[in-house]
Amino acid sequence: MENGKIKVAAVSYLNTKPLLYGLQHSPIWNEIELSVDYPSRIGQQLIDDEVDIGLIPVALIPKLSEYHIISDYCIGATGQVASVCMFSEVPVEEITGIYLDYQSRSSVALARFLLKNYWKISPAFLRAEAGYENNIKDTVAGIVIGDRALKKRGESKYIYDLAEAWIKYTGLPMVFAAWISNKELPKDFIERFNEATGLGTKGAELQHVIDENPCDFFDLKEYFSQHVSYAFDNEKRKGLKRFLEALKQPVA
User: Domain of 117?
Assistant: First the structure.
């Protein structure tokens, strides 16, 4: 905490806008200091105790010495998520190499798990750097997440949605990111924070989010309502538990 404010870090992708809306449009805004970055950096900030709360990739939970899930809202999916996908120019069985998105931890871990257990292929994993999406060609595929994935959907011949594959394999929803604190926080603050994070996920407030974030490459009403699932309900908690168990399995 700094200057009496609780430091909060969140992902800068479109899918977080409904969660951030309530923080920015409720009194809790005066109690926090918010920063945004891409997922893996947010997670590292929480691990290094540079922030108190992070909307972090759930694959990083085991790396925290202490963690508390403090919100009933998350970045999850109960079907196709649209923005966490494997893009390819050939069918999955013909893929020989794959770029793993450097901005993500959960999506990379999920991809490795699905490649081994669901698709049952063993491509070479390639180091991805900025602009790697342009190298997805021939038999080399790539995991792309977030806004870049939504843009990529109109370019690749084959699109494999990782949330959809996880659900088909496990029968459970997928949770990509959750609001996690690395220390105990006051109960009354958590209650206000929880209420605020859900404010922009439905109804008129969700429409305000859409209006505030004009997007020319994907229908945000469809994305927020039909693809991303924000309620961190019991089924998603089961899905998260299953995913954390999957992380313990060797990937080779």
Answer: 84-170
Structure tokens at 130: 């900025």
Amino acid sitting at position 101 = D
**Is residue 219 within 8 Å of 213, Cβ to Cβ?**
no
Calculate helix-pair angle for 17-24, 203-212, nearest 10 degrees: 100
Same domain flag for 96 and 154 = yes
And the tokens for 53?
């709360």
With vertex at residue 80, the alpha carbon angle to CA 75 and CA 86, rounded to the nearest 5 degrees, is 95
What pTM value is reported for the model? 0.94
pLDDT in tens, 60-77: 999 999 999 999 999 999
* 26/105 Cα distance (integer angstroms): 30
- For residue range 117-150, list pLDDT tens digits in order: 999 999 999 988 888 999 999 999 999 999 999 9
Task: Establish if 113 belongs to a structural domain.
Answer: yes
CA neighbor of 85 nearest in space, from 14, 150, 169: 150
